[in-house]
Design goal:
By secondary structure, the protein is of the alpha/beta class. The protein has two domains: 5-172 and 214-241, NAD(P)-binding Rossmann-like Domain (Rossmann fold); 175-212 and 245-316, UDP-galactose 4-epimerase, domain 1, CATH 3.90.25.10. The chain has twelve helices and 14 strands. The protein has helices at residues 13-26, 41-45, 57-67, 80-85, 87-106, 142-161, 187-198, 216-228, 249-259, 272-277, 286-292, 300-316; strands spanning 5-8, 31-35, 49-51, 71-74, 112-114, 117-118, 164-166, 168-170, 172-174, 200-203, 211-215, 240-241, 245-247, 264-267. Strands 3-2-1-4-5-7 form a six-stranded parallel sheet, with helices on both faces. Strands 6-8-12 form a three-stranded parallel sheet. Strands 9-11-13 form a three-stranded mixed sheet. Strand 2, helix 2 and strand 3 form a beta-alpha-beta unit. Helix 7 packs parallel to helix 9 (249-259). The longest helix has 20 residues, at 87-106. It starts with a strand and ends with a helix. The structure holds 2-amino-3-ketobutyric acid. Residues 79-80, 118-120, 143, 170, 172, 183-185 line the site of 2-amino-3-ketobutyric acid.
Length: 317
């Protein structure tokens, strides 16, 4: 039997590509895409689509019961940059959607839940390089506080109620199919569009700000892999560190220069610099490798090539 899947936040940066991949794997009718707003025609027409505000418990329950949903991917969240502008709204959205999904799982309305955490759970007192799975965590952003709290609740619901919740601490995710929404790592996407369109980018992070990043294809693979893993292999029920590539804006610009020699960059830090400075530079994901055989594929060069080719191809199609 193919598990019926609900994706919440299906029109967002991760949700779009996750929906596409899961529909290809499981059949379009088995993957219900939902979002608070409409998405691309392609996404809405390729399978079932529902307008859904997942902060509303009853609306979420109705969709789950209507489609006989087995597993939920909860991808709706307010990211770090926007959350600093709307702290209470971010807290409310990020926590209420998680509690709704956890409580539906606790009441056996669904069997399995994926909830994304982030490198934002770490803070200025965390060791910056090769940040381990277990370490000091004192997040200084609203988004980070909501993700760290969420991790504690996921572990609690698993231990106390046996809820099968699985989670990954995503690094900055780099993709071209859907624009990102209000993150600190978004510079690493904007840079490609500006490099291709006008050969120039002004970075809102300083040149030597190293952050953990990952190409979207790797992130989607990790997400589906952890959800498909045997439950006995999932030893961490808060959230797993996940590592891809680590680079600075200057290093990224240099890699882009190899493909677009006329590209130029300058730097003008804004409020997001303080957020980036509080996060790790690189991540140790030994636990994910050990427990469910995780291994990333894209390095800096492969990611740059895929981004440039993907953006150029989407402009001509
Ligand atoms: C953000 O920048 O807020 C996100 C994240 C690292 O979780 N991309």
């Amino acid at each position: 039997m193919i598990a019926k899947t609900l994706i919440i936040g299906a029109c967002g940066q991760i949700g779009t590509e996750l929906t596409e991949k899961l529909r290809a794997e499981k059949g379009n009718e088995n993957v219900i895409a939902s979002d608070i707003r409409e998405g691309s025609e392609k996404l809405m027409n390729s399978g079932p689509f529902e307008i859904l505000d997942a902060t509303n418990y009853n609306d979420l329950e109705d969709v789950i019961l209507h489609y006989n949903i087995d597993e939920v991917y909860l991808m709706a969240a307010m990211l770090s940059g926007t959350a600093e502008k709307f702290p209470m709204k971010a807290w409310d959205l990020n926590m209420s959607t998680l509690f709704n999904a956890l409580n539906l799982a606790k009441d056996s309305k669904i069997d399995k839940l994926f909830w994304p955490s982030s490198i934002a759970v770490f803070g200025p007192t965390t060791p910056k390089d090769q940040t381990p799975q277990k370490t000091v965590m004192e997040p200084s952003t609203v988004y980070g506080i909501s993700k760290q709290t969420g991790e504690r609740w996921c572990e609690y619901y698993h231990k106390r109620y046996g809820v099968d919740v699985r989670s990954i601490r995503y690094p900055g995710l780099i993709s071209y199919k859907t624009a990102p929404g209000g993150g600190t790592t978004d510079y690493a996407i904007e840079i490609f569009h500006d490099a291709i369109e006008g050969n120039f980018y002004r970075s809102f992070l300083t040149e030597n700000t190293a952050l953990p990043m990952m190409y979207m294809e790797d992130a989607i693979r990790a997400t589906i892999q952890i959800m498909n893993a045997d439950p006995t292999k999932i030893k961490v029920r808060s959230s797993y560190n996940l590592s891809g590539i680590s680079f600075t804006p200057k290093e990224l610009a240099k890699a882009i220069n190899k493909k677009i020699p006329q590209f130029e960059i300058d730097y003008e830090a804004d409020f997001r610099q303080a957020i980036a400075d509080s996060w790790p530079s690189s991540i140790d994901d030994t636990e994910a490798q050990k427990d469910w055989d995780w291994k990333h594929e894209y390095d800096l060069e492969a990611m740059v090539e895929a981004m440039i080719e993907g953006i150029k191809a989407s402009k001509t199609s």
